[in-house]
Amino acid sequence: MPTRGGSIKLFQLFGINVYVHWAWFLAFAYLVSRPREYSSYGWNALEVLALFLIVLTHEFGHQLACRQVGGKTNDIVLWPLGGVAYVSPPQRPGAQLWSIAAGPLVNVILLPLLSVLISVTSHLHLYDSDSDTYHLLHNIWLINIVLLVFNMLPIYPLDGGQILRSLLWFPFGRANSLLIASIFGLVGAVGLVALAIWQQSLWLGLITAFVVTNCWSGLKQARALANLAKIPRRQNFSCPSCKTSPPIGELWRCGKCGGKFDTFQTQGVCPHCGTQFSATQCLDCGTSSPISEWSSPPIDV
């Protein structure tokens, strides 16, 4: 996964930093140099920049939806395989579902707008008077459709696969939904391999490697979540973010000496080296908060 390391910050919008990975510039040069139906390479560059903008608006859809449900938003990193929105939605299936679905929803909204634009250009016979502009608009319309269809494939960790996981979360729970979605993703990866070979597409090959890597990580995470769910919980504490009670046991590791300890038993102090930690990470949702904010869960009366 791309990170800010090796990336260039472009701008900040709505408090969200947008970065572009250095490898994106290599992909840009390659795509611009490919022969197309345009009269000059400048039009190729405009098409790639349009792809850049569509991916960017898609990622902003994820970020703003996550913020709407009370999640934490971080950066957007654009790289040759698309874009990555670093978001931390609340660990609830509904919040996860909306945070993921809002990305493809942006492409759905763009579809009728671009379709109307294509219809107008056809009515004006732009193909005869300005074929470059006509081809550019038509290709942007096609790019948006391809991105929408591809992203909605039920292959984890594509948006469609993550939407499937969020829907499965309701009946099967957090761990099992991730397990099922990861298995579906690995099966889908077989189809992507066949398609990549048939199309002789390096891009599809890289996407397949990305899918397999994330599905394998998903399988391991699902196993860890299943084991975590079996551990007894401290009912007198609850995470400020996801409202889940923390597990009992030496499950936290000191970042200084590497020793394991139960942070709630020691009030955030490592018993091995004496290091005091100002915040404690929730093992369920990953957010960190001071122990003083881990209040008792509400009691129904």
Which keywords apply here?
single chain; about 300 residues; alpha+beta; 2 domains; 4-stranded mixed β-sheet; 8 strands; elongated
- The average pLDDT value, as a whole number, equals 89
Q: Count of helices?
A: 8
By helix and strand content, what is the structural category? alpha+beta
Largest sheet, if any?
4 strands, mixed
Total beta strands:
8
Shape, principal axes of CA atoms: elongated
Q: How big a fraction of the residues is strand? A: 5-15%
Cα(first) to Cα(last) distance is 47 Å
Q: What's the assembly state of these chains? A: single chain
* Low-confidence parts: 297-301
- Rg on CA atoms, Å: 23 Å
Counted up, domains total: 2
Give the % helix.
40-55%
User: Could you give the order of strands across the largest sheet?
Assistant: 1-2-3-4
* Element-by-element helix/strand order: EEHHEEHHHHHHEEEE
Please summarize what this structure is.
By secondary structure, the chain is α+β, with helices and mostly antiparallel strands. 54% of the residues lie in helices and 12% in strands.
Q: Can you walk through the features of this model?
A:
With 301 residues, this protein is α+β, with helices and mostly antiparallel strands. It folds into two domains: 7-152, no CATH class; 234-301, no CATH class. The chain has helices at residues 22-33, 41-68, 93-123, 126-129, 131-151, 159-172, 174-199, 202-229, and strands at residues 7-13, 16-21, 72-79, 82-88, 252-253, 260-261, 280-281, 288-289. The strands form three sheets. It has a four-stranded mixed beta sheet. A two-stranded antiparallel sheet has the order 5-6. A hairpin with a 2-residue loop joins strand 3 (72-79) and strand 4. Helix 3 (93-123) runs antiparallel to helix 5 (131-151), helix 3 (93-123) runs antiparallel to helix 6 (159-172) and helix 6 packs antiparallel against helix 7 (174-199). The protein is elongated, with a radius of gyration of 23 Å. It starts with 6 loop residues before the first strand and ends in a 12-residue tail after the last strand. The relative contact order is 0.08. The model is unreliable at 297-301 (pLDDT under 50).
